[in-house]
Specification:
14 strands, Rossmann fold, alpha/beta, 6-stranded parallel beta sheet, 544 residues, 13% strand
Length: 544
Amino acid sequence: MRALLISPRNENSFWTFPEQCLFAGRKTVCPPMGLITVAALLPPDWELRVADLHARSLTEGDWEWAEIVMITGMMVHRSSFKETVAEAKRRGKIVVAGGPYPTSMSEDALAAGCDFLVRGEAENTLPALLEALKEGKTRGVFEHPEKPDVSTSPIPRFDLLRFDDYMVMAVQTSRGCPFDCEFCDVVNLYGRKPRLKTPEQVIAELETLVRLGFKGDIIVSDDNFIGHKAHARALLARLTPWNKAHGEPFGYWTQASVNLGQDLEMIDLMTAANFSHVLVGIESPDVDVLAGARKFHNIKNPLVESVNNITRNGLSVLGSFILGLDGEKPGAGERICSFIELTDLPVATINSLQAAPNTSLWNRLISEQRLVADEAMTGEGTFARRLNFIPTRPESQILGEHGAAWDHLYEPSRFLERNYRYHVAMRPTRAAMARSRGEPPPKRKVSHKLSSRQKLRALRAFARLCWRQGVRSSCRLKFWRCLFGILKRNPSRFRKYVVACVMGEDMFRIRAALHQSMNAIAGNHAGHARPAAAPATSLAGEQS
């Protein structure tokens, strides 16, 4: 069987980072991990191709070669998913769908033309699909009542990827999150009990990447890296010596809950293992809003203190915030901006809330008759012009604050100042602190040095940054002042500072795009205003 495994085109959003990809000379950010995990579960005699449509377009040769098309996608891929399914069916292909979007909105995916649909995770569901194909069946929906044991999950088929297409690679060490935030679909998709890969499994995946020649950063794509702290510690205890023994070929990014900021030992273990960045869901500085959304772990400890602890101990925080949660008062956007300025976070995403299917929030909105069915899950991501529900304050107010927050935070001069303060406050690297104490550098195996091609890419990226922000920009003098200031005051964090400057290019792009979006919103609301719903705090309180 010849199977074409397709990841749909990404919608334009915070997560696509086109400017950063351009600077790095790459096509897109991260590979489709679900697809290459599915590929490892397919029969060994099948011939496989992976087509990531955000990196490369499908060719006539791909379509002619394929006997079966297997397509995945998240909610943000909805539009591209449907277009791709329609094209596959026009060409007479068998279409199998799976992943978060087909799982959450199965009827929608089937209506798009899929022949087979796999709901849930592939490890324990795919065998039923393979049996149906073997029996000659032409349609079916497959689901397993239990979540799979990921300690049996195979090494993903990294060999099917073109590494030069991607800024980073990815591995996964666990699935699921112990928290139950009302708006989050992780619990619905992957459960509250984290399911864990063994440290040996993770090391085997990393060794596979080394063998295949990948060097660079890796996203540890867990729902919450510290969701099971004992597992995280055990993994880090193995990872640190492995990194050093292999010349530290990788740096790591991940996602974790904000309570990481109250565990200084964990932060230290992560930085020792070469973790550099962590995405943190902060959501809102308003305690009552967090309580209504069941984000209690963000209330338990002071948010500013937690974020500052993570930063000052060597991890860069990418903050995520939400506007439009129930019970939110006017001025929430300004309060988010104040929080970001107080913690000096250089890069943060502010999202207008879209209710995700089958979450607790989705079900509550249905019961309150507040879900807007014809606009549900628009897939517009960062640039959504409508909410898919009736909020507790005017929609135009929420979307206006959303655009104003991006406008304020990513005014270039303000961004550079914040970025500078943030990295000046971060502690130096371990190597720099050792040098300051007159200690010899740690002994390591010969490092996986950058190739000449990688060095040239890095040089070109830095030159492009200097041209964009140091020559063409109206704040060019501030750019140079901050750049040389970092070299003087915290030189070991120079690379992190430059990476954040490059990320700023994408933030400036979003800021400009939202200006256009806000104008469109203003026009739409002039003739199509939707009222705010009556507050639903009593119901939210009961569910809390």
